[in-house]
Specification:
Elements lengths: L1 E3 L4 H12 L5 E4 L13 E4 L5 H7 L6 E4 L15 H22 L3 E7 L16 E2 L14 H17 L5 E7 L2 E2 L12 H14 L7 E5 L5 E3 L1 E2 H12 L6 E4 L4 E3 H12 L7 E5 L10 E2 L2 H7 L7 H16 L4 H6 L12 E10 L13 H22 L6 E11 L14 H8 L5 E6 L6 H14 L4 E4 L4 E3 L4 H16 L7 E6 L9 E4 H6 L14 H10 L4 E11 L17 H20 L7 E9 L4 H8 L7 E9 L7 H8 L5 E5 L6 H12 L4 E5 L4 E2 L3 H11 L5 E7 L6 H8 L23 E5 L20 H15 L5 E10 L10 H11 L2 H4 L4 E3 L5 H22 L3 H28 L14 H27 L3 H5 L2 E3 L9 H29 L1
Parallel strand pairs: 1-2, 1-4, 2-3, 4-5, 5-7, 6-15, 7-12, 8-11, 9-14, 16-17, 16-19, 17-18, 21-23, 24-25, 24-27, 25-26, 29-31
Antiparallel strand pairs: 10-13, 19-22, 20-23, 21-22, 27-30, 28-31, 29-30, 32-33
């Protein structure tokens, strides 16, 4: 069962009754919820019944019964003569749409909510007597003269429904007579007499002692009406639905009262004494008919029904509900409710200014000629007509839309400029398509300066008091009808949901030619008011203006992209344009800051308690493009006070998974997917995300194979707000349990030590791995990026950027890096838990650069490490080989091999000593199931991993020619002094012990062989 307008007054009550009785109820309404606090339906569709597509959706899925209550209606403040045409058009459009959809869907029963206004006005003009209107009186003397076009439309709809009845559909036609009760309209101008008089009585009671207690009545109070309480109405409706009666039927009370008597009842039920109140009669307001009453003979006969709730009892119950609604209103608001208002459904037009730069110039790369611009303009005009026809030609109950083209032409574009007294070729093209409201601006902004043309057009439109400003291009084709009303509704939603003034925000079309980019945004006049007529700053030439606007309002959660409002950009977008593209340099810093500051100053006056959101961009470089893992990252949700954008940089342009990723996420403006032209490495990809794509205050780097905790972004926001001056934060990167020899060896070798450093050092953290690293972006150290001199495979670049970011932060009075132990991700073991010697070798090969780059954090070791010792033995081996070849004496060569074996054996023995004896407590907290002989194997393999890292670092020094650092046995302090000299001394101790053990082993070998 479908209740159309089921969140309205009668619709919500009947929906609740049926829902409570166990029926399957679907509600279709423009409002998302009713005034009931408990559920009244299993399903709700929010939509406009003036759109056929909404009506078709409403009756899908085997709907058996449709209850059609949708109407522009109300009391005499609504259905007066000035609103007649709007009411007729809208009501008839909704009825024909839903009736047609119901017939096509095979609905079995259709109920039309009609009205007592269908009865002839001439039968209701006798003052002082009750007129009991029978159902047949609608066609009194074989003629019709209903009350206004509201009544005429309902009568016409009755006939339309009865024609459809000839098919297989049953019908029910209900002529309601002034239904009232709780949850009905009571203050908007749509309320009927009972609610209006109860409201005025309650206000008079609340304001007692604040001046004279007066109650306004429209007319002289002698008009007569009958009124039906909502419970009686629902009772009659249920009986009608369960009957087989298919003719029009009155549902109302057959006991009428004068409006004066109704006012007296209202005063009594709220506790006002007659002597405490006086009545004011306003005879200038709409009155309606003189006398109206329902004849209930037919309904009594067919349904065995009659009203049971007396008028005074129903008014008392309604007053009790209204009292709760009024209870907490301010004094100023109460004063405004003393009088009823007349609703004018003829709104001021909402004018969309379409800012349309056009040029006939082309670049050789575009392959176009001058005439092509007119062809594209014609296509644009066709699409404009097609997609605005509904909004501009259909009068609505709420809005009236129109548009004006502001056509901008360069002053040296001879092909498009007006010649003599003739119109411009562009204007002629638009006129030929029926677009006539055009203002031409001939401007000198420089060739290709689209943003400059937008600025001048916007200012002119602002001076003309246009409502909305559409930054458009002549190569665009609009695809979806109704976009004007959708844009307007979205701005309304933004205001309602975010608590901002009406018109604040940025709404973008969905550009299918440039997925995910907020191209061609729409702004409200509010934006131009804030910036005094400047739509975008002068720094923008022909690129970046639209994302600037989107990012500006993102700070308040007020940027939107409409998924059902699409356009296509024939030329330009992400491809070659007709002009040379020129980007605005560093607009995401000072330019964006100035815009934000301007809005903050404006917002302090308009909404003082509203603060902008924290902005974070999550940058994920990916070579593997593993869709399931990326989906987990992209599903992360921030808190309502934080705005997050995801930037995915694909580093393998040949990946077969790119299409799926873009198809799934590419149209989300908060997910930006970019593909490198060649494999550039993780650091270059991070730099692209940081420099070219991001505009947030903070950057959050994640590896593409990490699995984040669901609360990752919430915890990130917490630590940022706790330490707003930090250079950045090091997250907590965990590994799964080390259940193999290889994974246990990786931990024992200490290559994973810094991955969870956030759990070990709370503040002034030396550095963190880029698998889970947060850095401040929105400061003037924008030149600090990942150094491309480090290997593409990584190694040292994370340490370097952390040190440079900290240095810059401290120099401007900020802090260093803090640990973020609750910002948790899980990183898988490399190679699915297999061995990764090459990876560790390459990391060390790169991080050896730090010795030269950061000499203040280096020290000279007292003894060579394993790699350096082996390098020394290799020198002896080469010398011994030459000596052996020259003198046939191989003792030096063989001795060098024994020396190398001694070095390696010493490292094995020393690591066994560390992990099984001296530092055994350090390994007790390891997450591992490895034990026994496998634990011994893991220690020995850990030695090999450490040695491979030392070899990589040594080879890197050699290849870069860092001989001085190599010869002086320089080491980089991984803790950069954070833990004082203790870590250096321990490294010195281990190296000296291992070197001494190597010498001892070699000496024992030599001594043994001498005996």
């Amino acid at each position: 069962m479908v209740t159309i307008w089921g969140h309205g007054f009668i619709g919500s009550h009947i929906a609740k009754y049926l829902y409570d009785e166990g029926h399957r109820v679907r509600i279709v309404d423009t409002q998302a919820k009713s005034l009931f606090e408990t559920p009244i339906a299993q399903e709700t569709i929010v939509g406009d019944l003036r759109l056929p597509s909404v009506c078709r959706q409403a009756v899908t899925g085997g709907v058996s019964t449709v209850l059609h209550f949708a109407a522009v209606m109300g009391g005499m403040g609504m259905i007066h003569e000035d609103n007649d045409m709007t009411i007729y058009h809208q009501n008839h459009l909704m009825t024909t749409n839903i009736l047609s959809a119901s017939r096509d869907a095979g609905v079995k029963c259709f109920m039309l909510a009609s009205t007592a206004c269908v009865y002839p006005s001439k039968l209701q003009s006798s003052l002082g007597s009750d007129i009991h209107l029978r159902e047949a009186d609608a066609y009194h003397n074989n003629s019709v003269s209903p009350q206004g076009l509201y009544g005429l439309e309902k009568l016409a709809s009755e006939q339309l429904v009865r024609v459809v009845q000839r098919s297989t559909m049953e019908i029910r036609i209900v002529r309601f007579h002034n239904v009232y009760g709780p949850r009905g309209e009571w203050y908007s101008g749509r309320e009927k007499a009972p609610a209006a008089l109860l409201r005025k009585a309650l206000v008079a009671e609340a304001l007692k002692g604040q001046g004279p207690s007066t109650i306004e009545l429209w007319g002289n109070g002698q008009q007569r009406r009958s009124f039906l309480y909502i419970d009686d109405c629902i009772d009659a409706l249920i009986k009608l639905l369960r009957s087989d009666f298919q003719e029009p039927l009155n549902i109302g009370s057959d006991s009428s009262v004068s409006i004066q008597e109704l006012a007296n009842i209202a005063c009594r039920v709220v506790g006002l004494k007659k002597e405490d109140v006086s009545f004011v009669y306003d005879t200038t307001k709409p009155l309606g008919v003189i006398s109206r009453n329902s004849n209930n003979e037919l309904v009594s006969k067919k349904l065995k029904w009659k009203p049971r709730v007396s008028l005074e009892e129903g008014m008392r119950w309604t007053g009790e509900w209204m009292r709760d609604e009024i209870l907490n209103l301010s004094m100023e608001r109460l004063q405004s409710l003393r009088e009823s208002r007349v609703v004018d459904l003829r709104p001021d037009p909402i004018v969309f200014a379409i800012l349309l730069p056009i040029t006939s110039r082309v670049t050789p790369e575009s392959g176009l000629c001058k005439e092509d611009c007119l062809i594209q303009l014609g296509k644009f005009a066709d699409s404009l007509n097609r997609t605005t026809a509904y909004d501009t030609n259909s009068p609505t109950s709420y809005h009236r839309f129109s548009y004006r083209i502001y056509l901008a032409i360069d002053d040296d574009d001879e092909f498009l400029l007006p010649q003599s007294k003739e119109l411009s070729r562009a204007v002629k093209m638009l006129h030929s398509k029926g677009v006539v409201d055009i203002e031409v601006l001939v401007l000198n902004e420089g060739r290709g300066n689209v943003c400059g043309l937008w600025r001048k057009c916007a200012r002119r439109a602002w001076e003309n008091n246009c409502t909305y400003y559409v930054l458009m291009g002549d190569d665009v084709e609009l695809l979806d009808e109704g976009w004007m009303s959708r844009v307007h509704q979205e701005f309304t939603n933004i205001s309602k949901n975010e608590g901002v003034p009406v018109g604040f925000g940025c709404v973008a079309f969905k550009d299918i030619s440039f997925p995910g980019m907020p191209t061609f945004p729409v702004l409200h006049k509010t934006h131009l008011d804030i910036f005094e007529g400047e739509v975008i700053p002068p720094i923008f030439f022909n690129q970046d203006g639209d994302p600037y606007l989107f990012q500006l309002y993102r700070r308040w959660g007020c940027s939107r992209m409409l998924s059902d409002t699409r356009l296509r950009n024939a030329i330009g977008g992400s491809e070659t344009a007709r002009y040379k593209k020129r980007c605005a340099v560093d607009w995401t810093f000072d330019t964006l800051d100035r815009g934000i500051q301007r809005i903050e100053e404006w917002m302090k006056e308009k909404v003082p308690g509203l603060h902008r959101r924290l902005t974070i961009d999550v940058v994920v470089p990916t070579y593997r493009v593993q869709i399931p893992l990326l989906k987990t990252i992209l599903s992360l949700k921030p808190s309502p006070t934080c705005s997050v954008m995801f930037i995915i940089i694909i580093d393998d342009p040949t990946s077969p998974h790119i299409f799926e990723l873009e198809h799934t996420f590419g149209h989300d403006p908060y997910i930006r997917i970019r593909t490198n032209k060649t494999n550039s490495g993780a650091s270059a990809s991070r730099n692209r995300g940081m420099v070219e794509e991001s505009s947030a205050e903070w950057l959050f780097f994640l590896d593409d194979d990490t699995v984040p905790e669901p609360n990752l972004l919430v915890e990130t926001e917490k630590v940022i707000r706790q330490h707003p001056l930090a250079a950045g934060f090091v997250g907590n990167t965990q590994f799964p349990s080390a259940d193999s020899v290889a994974t246990a060896a990786a931990i024992l070798s200490n290559v994973t030590f810094f991955w969870d450093i956030a759990t070990k050092i709370p503040d002034d953290v030396p550095w963190g791995v880029t698998a889970n690293l947060i850095i401040r972006r929105h400061v003037q150290d924008k030149d600090i990026v990942f150094d491309p001199g480090f290997p593409k495979t990584g190694g040292g670049e994370d340490i370097d950027i952390c040190l440079r970011k900290k240095k810059a932060s401290v120099e401007r009075g900020g802090d260093g890096f803090f640990g973020a132990p609750d910002v948790v991700v899980t990183h898988p073991w490399w190679n699915n838990g297999g061995r990764s010697y090459k990876r560790f070798y390459m990391w060390a090969h790169g991080d050896g650069m730090l010795i030269r780059m950061w000499p203040q954090f280096t020290y000279s070791c007292r003894a060579p490490n394993c790699a350096e010792s082996i390098l020394i033995t290799m020198g002896f081996a080469v010398l011994g080989l030459c000596w052996g070849l020259a003198r046939n004496d191989w003792s030096i060569f063989l001795g060098s091999l024994k020396m190398a074996a001694s070095v390696l054996l010493a490292n094995f023995i020393h690591d066994l000593y560390l992990h099984l004896w001296r530092d055994v407590e350090r390994t007790r907290s390891m997450k591992t199931t490895v034990s026994g002989i496998r634990w011994i194997a893991a220690i020995l393999e850990g030695t090999l991993i450490r040695v491979s890292s030392e070899v990589g670092r040594t080879m890197g020094l050699i290849q870069r020619g860092d001989w001085k650092q190599l010869m002086s046995l320089k080491r980089f302090d991984w803790f950069v002094g954070r833990w004082g000299p203790a870590t250096r001394e321990e490294e010195q101790k281990n190296t000296v012990e291992t070197a001494a053990l190597s010498v001892l082993l070699f000496a024992l070998w030599v001594v043994r062989e001498s005996f």
